[in-house]
Amino acid sequence: MGKSVLLTGYPGIGKTTIIRHVVAALGNLAGGFYTEEIAGPGGRHGFRLVTLEGRTATLAHKDLRDPKYPRVGRYGVDVAEFERVGIRALRNAMEEGKMLIVDEIGAMELYSQRFQDVMMQAFMGNHHVIGTIMNKPNPAADAFRYLSQVDIWEVDRRNRERMPGLLLKWARVYL
Length: 175
Hints:
CATH topology: Rossmann fold
Low-confidence stretches: none
Helix content: 25-40%
Shape: globular
Mean pLDDT: 96
Strand content: 25-35%
Number of helices: 5
Oligomer: single chain
């Protein structure tokens, strides 16, 4: 059994919903962040980062069109804002010895080398992570996926309702 668990599965299968259930159950024993959609007229406009400390930041938005913002699909990614808010939340949780919540290790987040470095420190150090990871092959994501310290749990329609309970049972070993 690894000391960290990353959920993977197709987009929309419910990984973030599972993470949010786990966050609610763990309360102040956890730190880190999850993501949520920024919706508006005409559908999704981007993604917001929400820390377990209550801070928010725009991770990506369709209106971020300046060349300084790397693109993932139709969204410009605000790497600097992600690092300012998201990495601070991870470092705070690490310093406080909390269970790290990371939703997600995906194409947008992986534009940040600082994020990659912090995640490697977490996985290789004395930290425990519950998170999500992109389903598609990606060299940066695969560097985490294949660590012996990390267990990958596939989320599908058959198991997604049970997954919060399984994760909480797993987490109790380390809390």
